[in-house]
């Protein structure tokens, strides 16, 4: 067995003048004397002091940035400035060399763009150490939140034959020979010969299966990878992202909104309480970054202020119809500054509109409800037509500053006749969703749920600006490296 102490606990130790072993990767080696070692247990490094007069020259040469080393030594209170503890090395072993000519991470600031190209190594920077600690804490907090409330964690399938969102943005899953696929008599690819004897794809959402479970357990959630083959090259979209989808029986849209707001506040509070060092680091990183921007583009609040502000205030709730009124008479709409001008009810909201509402108008998270039926999914509960006969559904989107849509959800259409009528209008074949429709056949009940884009949450809490920096190995159009 390997015995070592973690850098995190050594940096906090009160027991000095004892022998310790530390293992980690060299961040810097100064003056042939001071090694900064990081083992990932925290952002900080521990300083190892080397007696170079009594250390083999060849060994000293191998202590290079990126090398993995094991150090045995005595832990002492540091006499130098900048750190509380040092390890006086008694022996050093090189576990893995790192050629300094080739190792791409130098002890200097690298751009996020460059680090994205070496995503396999970027974990070894302080920024990515902090981001992924925050990501971990948020994931853990989500499970804790639902567990405390008695939800059952469901693992819904990743390979499915249905399109949950009806948007057709799916990655096909097949084992057919693409060079020479079997064909039906009319020349189409014959999926009855495929692995599952039908056409299948990667799931875009676990919701439909989640609904089945909710209609037995009462309250469930999923937390898994979802896939969208949409050609969106933005700082908010991934082709593979993680979604948290609670589904609750005997719950209406109000309950749904409350659950989402409670969950978001709970997990943000958890991250602030449990990742104080990391969030502090990210807060300062953002302040530094903002310094290079012109005054009017800088955010009014620091990251920590923004997170606390979100905890201390109720999310603003309003209907789509009310939002359209605000947008229509807004300055950027009047002055034709929006790329997509809002002139009539029914328009889908673009991210510029969402951001106007959240960042300029309300200046806090906003929950928009009751969207036009035509821009939302088939399964959403149909409202009574409004006074002028317009059709809306009991949908809700939660919009966040700097992010846009963080959560999308709805009360579900539990009435069989209404659901089937809507599916017919949209040409969604009932045979394929017979099992989904069974929930409406046997003991249907009001129920609601939503989907949280996990990376968008990490983006908000870490203060990063590109979604590709908050998932380990981002998948996006024309990129599946690593
Ligand atoms: O709004 P969406 O498409 O909703 C659903 O999939 C529902 N079935 C959820 C439900 O009611 N159970 O996606 C939900 C959330 C969005 O609000 C957004 O945060 C995130 O998933 N999302 C993405 N995140 C990253 N990259 C993408 N391409 C995303 N598409 C959606
Ligand atoms: Mg949505």
TrEMBL record:
Entry's family note: Belongs to the class-II aminoacyl-tRNA synthetase family.
One cellular component term from this protein's GO annotations in UniProt: cytoplasm
Superkingdom to which the source organism belongs: Bacteria
The protein's name: Asparagine--tRNA ligase
HAMAP family: Asn_tRNA_synth
InterPro entries: Aa-tRNA-synt_II (IPR004364), aa-tRNA-synth_II (IPR006195), aa-tRNA-synth_II/BPL/LPL (IPR045864), Asn-tRNA-ligase (IPR004522), Asp/Asn-tRNA-synth_IIb (IPR002312), NA-bd_OB-fold (IPR012340), NA-bd_OB_tRNA (IPR004365)
Source species taxonomy: Bacteria, Pseudomonadati, Bacteroidota, Sphingobacteriia, Sphingobacteriales
First-listed, main subcellular location of the protein, grouped into a coarse class: cytoplasm
GO annotation terms (biological process): asparaginyl-tRNA aminoacylation
Keywords, alphabetical: Aminoacyl-tRNA synthetase, ATP-binding, Cytoplasm, Ligase, Nucleotide-binding, Protein biosynthesis
Gene name as annotated: asnS
Entries under Pfam families matching the protein: tRNA-synt_2, tRNA_anti-codon
Source organism of this protein record: Pedobacter heparinus (strain ATCC 13125 / DSM 2366 / CIP 104194 / JCM 7457 / NBRC 12017 / NCIMB 9290 / NRRL B-14731 / HIM 762-3)
Domain Aminoacyl-transfer RNA synthetases class-II family profile: 132-474
A molecular function GO annotation: asparagine-tRNA ligase activity
Compartments reported by the entry: Cytoplasm
E.C. code: 6.1.1.22
Catalysed conversion reaction: tRNA(Asn) + L-asparagine + ATP = L-asparaginyl-tRNA(Asn) + AMP + diphosphate + H(+)
Subunit description: Homodimer.
EC category name: ligase
